[in-house]
Specification:
About 25% of the residues lie in helices and about 30% in strands. The protein has a five-stranded mixed beta barrel. A two-stranded antiparallel sheet has the order 1-2. It has a single domain, classed as Nucleic acid-binding proteins (OB fold (Dihydrolipoamide Acetyltransferase, E2P), Beta Barrel), CATH 2.40.50.140. The chain contains four helices and seven strands. By secondary structure, it is of the alpha+beta class.
């Protein structure tokens, strides 16, 4: 698992760094940046127009029903279908996301449509993958007292 996290960090750094032109010497050089997981998370949040995180939502789920939030962590397939999701297995697959920041895990539900077929296959083969997701707790899938359960709307892995 440590290797997967390091791989995710390395790939994130590669995506966020690059070559810049040095006009005075006419040479290009590698831009030196110290990119952290927090930097990657903030960029994804900004790119998706999100202001809420899983930390914001977990203690006031009713207050944030229907509002999108971001979550980043290691994901694995799950068989957890409970509360309003208990009959959703035919239409959705479940993943458990353990956030990198150490906060409580979330169960996200993704449509079994072709949109997430590659992620499902990757989770089946690799067992866990680092990901960023935009998610929301739909009003029609909320039951008072439920845990951290939400529908994923956008997933990067």
């Amino acid at each position: 698992m440590r290797l997967r996290i390091l791989t995710f960090i390395f790939l994130s750094i590669l995506l966020l760094t690059g070559c810049t032109s040095n006009a005075s010497s006419g040479h290009s050089s590698d831009a030196k940046q110290d990119v952290t997981l927090d930097d990657v998370f903030k960029k994804r949040m900004n790119d998706e127009g999100l202001t809420l995180t899983n930390k914001d939502v977990q203690f006031d789920k009713e207050g944030y029903l229907g509002k999108k939030f971001g979550i980043q962590g290691m994901a694995e397939l799950s068989d957890y279908y409970n509360y309003a999701f208990r009959d959703a297995e035919a239409d959705f697959f479940s993943i458990r996301v353990v956030p990198f920041d150490g906060t409580d895990s979330w169960y996200l539900y993704l449509s079994r449509s072709a949109d997430y077929d590659d992620l499902y296959k990757k989770l089946m083969s690799d067992k866990s993958v680092p990901l960023f997701a935009s998610a929301a707790i739909p009003r029609n899938f909320y039951e008072k007292g439920q845990g951290n359960l939400a529908m994923a709307t956008i997933v990067y892995y």
